[in-house]
Each structure stands twice: as C-alpha cells, then as structure tokens.
Amino acid sequence: MAALSARAARSLLALIAVVVAVTLAGCGGSDGTPAAAPGDDVAGVAETKALLDGIPQKQLALGSPKAPVTLVEVIDLQCPFCEMHQREVQPKIVKDFVRTGRLRIVLVPVSFLGDDSTRMEIVMLRLSQQAKAWDFANLVFWNHGQEGSGYATDGWLRRIVEAIPGTDSTAASTTPDKDILQAAQASKLIAERGMAKAGGAGTPFFTIGKTGDPIYDLTPILAGAPPDAYDVIAKPIKRVETGKAPEPLEAAPEDSSAQEAGDA
Fold it and tell me: Is residue 65 part of a domain?
C-alpha cells in the first residue's frame, strides 16, 4: 500500500484556507469496457437522482451548511473500493444523516491511480463550480472501466457530463485552469495531512469533525471499504454531534485500498 508523504508544504496552507472556504461554504473492472461506451446509455442516472435530489450541493460539499458535523471523504475516481462505498454504503449515510440535516459530506478527489484519475478529477473539480460534483462522481462510479486502460476519454467524459441535468458541457474539458490547479493542490494536501495522521492509508479515506473546523485537520476514522463501514462512520457522527471527540483511526488497514495498485 502506498502512503502519502507526511510532510505538508507550508506554502500551501494559505492556499488551502482560501480553497477550503470555497470548497466547504487491487483495482479495476472485469473486462476493460466502460459501461458508458459510445452508443450506450449512461448507467446510474436514476440512482444518482434518487441519491441527490433535493439535497443542497456547494462546491464539493453535499448537505446543509448548518449541519453540525462534517465528514470528509477522499476518493480516487478509479478506485473500486470507492465505487463500492459510493454505491452500497453512501445511500444509507445520505438518507440517515445528510437528508436529516445532521451531516455534511465533502467529497475530495485525488489522482493516485494515473492519467484517467487525473482527467476525472479535473472534470469533477470543474463541475464543483456548477454544484454538480456529486452527480459526476456518482455517475463515474456507475460507469467504471478497467483501471489504467485509458477509458476516461474525452468522449466518455462528455457522455457522463451530458447525462447530468443542467450542466455546461464545457465542464468535460480536461485542461485545468488556475482555479482547478489550486483546488487539486488543496485536495492533495487534505489527503496528505489526514493520511499522515493515520500513518499512511488508502482510498476511500475518511476524516470527521465539527462543521467549521479546519477541513485539513479533522480526525481520521476510516480507510478502505470494510463490510461494517456504515457503523464505523455512524458512530463518530453521533459522537461529534453530541460534543464528544471521535475515536481516531490508529493504523491503516492492510487492504481495501486503491493505492495498492499504485505501489505495484
């Protein structure tokens, strides 16, 4: 398992404060063929609508800004464990905690797994400016191809973006501007600082704290997608909303990480 460096660049701290103010206010498919191939329908459109309909989005955050608890989830959009969590666990978390106003989730994309991850991260960050980052991430996880196969082509990305109601199709561009580059640096720092606290970890990776606390300094609670992920996340949510400190993640697990492939 690859671990991010524990060293956090001081020069990015000022940047993260600015970006966060905006942001917060083995791997692979079975056959290498993305479900959203040209000529096919994009999968997961109805499921994405059911998951997100009526919930406020702002930048990378889902849920009311008045929610007392903030959960940060670091993802790689190629990671199958991130897909597993998003499709199997996230709907219940959203139903029980986000829709009820108890929790706000910030979905932070990073690109540990190569060029496809980078291209998808850029598009997700661009769509965050249209409050559609969660729609994009969910559809990506419903339309995964084989890791490292180059499936996240311009055409594939455009089809995913065009399946999201109300989006500007130019968001499918994978050419980052200054704002996107800054947001990507901020995402990396959030992941780096959180994983350093856990002694190294993979994706998905979760930190938690009170809404309004510095997003890059929350408490790590989970790495990976274990069968009891819902319970592992629900417990610290309840602790934080009652004023108690969450129990921190003591050590990174030995599997359930997208970064294993990055170490190969």
Answer: yes
CA 134 – CA 51 distance, rounded (Å): 10
How confident is the model over 248-262, as pLDDT tens digits?
886 544 444 444 434
CA distance 158 to 150: 15
Residue 6 lies in a domain: no
The pLDDT tens digits of the residues spanning 188-224 come to 888 888 888 887 778 999 999 999 999 988 999 999 9
207: domain CATH number is 3.40.30.10
Torsion sign, CA atoms 144, 58, 249, 235: negative
Helix spans in the chain (H): 11-24, 45-52, 80-84, 90-93, 115-128, 133-142, 154-162, 178-197, 229-241, 259-263
CB 80 within 8 A of CB 45: no
Q: Is 223 helix (H, G, I), strand (E, B) or coil?
A: strand
Q: Which domain holds residue 183?
A: 11-26+34-263
